[in-house]
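Course assignment 3, question 2. Fill in each field.
Student: A.L.
Task: Predict the tertiary structure for the chain below.
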Amino acid sequence: MIDLHHHLLYGLDDGARTLEDSLNMARMAMQDGITHIVCTPHANHRYPFNPEINTARLKEIEQELERSGHGGKMTFGLGCDFHMTFDNIEDARQNPTKYSINGNGYLLVELPDEGIPVGLTETFYQLQIAGLTPILTHPERNATLQRNPDRMKNWIRGGMLVQVTAGSVIGRFGRIAQHMANRLLADNWVHVIATDAHNTTSRPPAMQQAGTVIAEMYGAETARRLCIDNPGRIFYGKPLGEQPEPLGIYSELQPKKSWLDKLLRR
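Answer field:
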């Protein structure tokens, strides 16, 4: 399994606090069957984003894993948990490889827990013009989208991808988030499952249980697509290829039949 959203780098945000935390999270991920991790520290006003520091922290983690006999068991990448501030957006438009996963153009975008930034549809469009493909992270945990998931329809039509948190699928974030996660999965609105891991306890680096639930409810092919195939293509900067049709996204764009059309069909 490939985890595209993981706060592994220590001392940078509200994820791993120490080097030992980072190492424990990596080992736990290995035990869970995760083979690839993208390290995605927050990029916002509270947690400044510095690619050079991120690279140095990841190198230190890899060296320590090598010393402890875990070297070569995990493939790491770099990205960020991108917050939609004005400064971030402008910088990303000028430097599209800076924030994206492994510099390949896929960008994890995080919304606040409540509310949606004004002009978000236009912002997604501007990011795409700059060569970025937005991946909306954990929409099932946003209270505004929980009340009205249909607000995502225009974004998905425009090419935005959707990442649901593994913990939401199994109820770690409450019943409302779990219900919405399952609705998104049932309607084929989800492209990626990821851990959004922050620690080894309340926000662990675990995908296996969620993958099993998805396989049981929606089929093994769906579980593989969301946990391995799609995130693998994103990790290496490749197009996703053909995906199942998302229900209710394009059908409502079809012109409605007039009373005369209905009459002539009889």
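Instructor remarks: Residues 2-264 form a domain with the TIM Barrel fold (CATH 3.20.20.140). The mean pLDDT is 94.
Grade: pending
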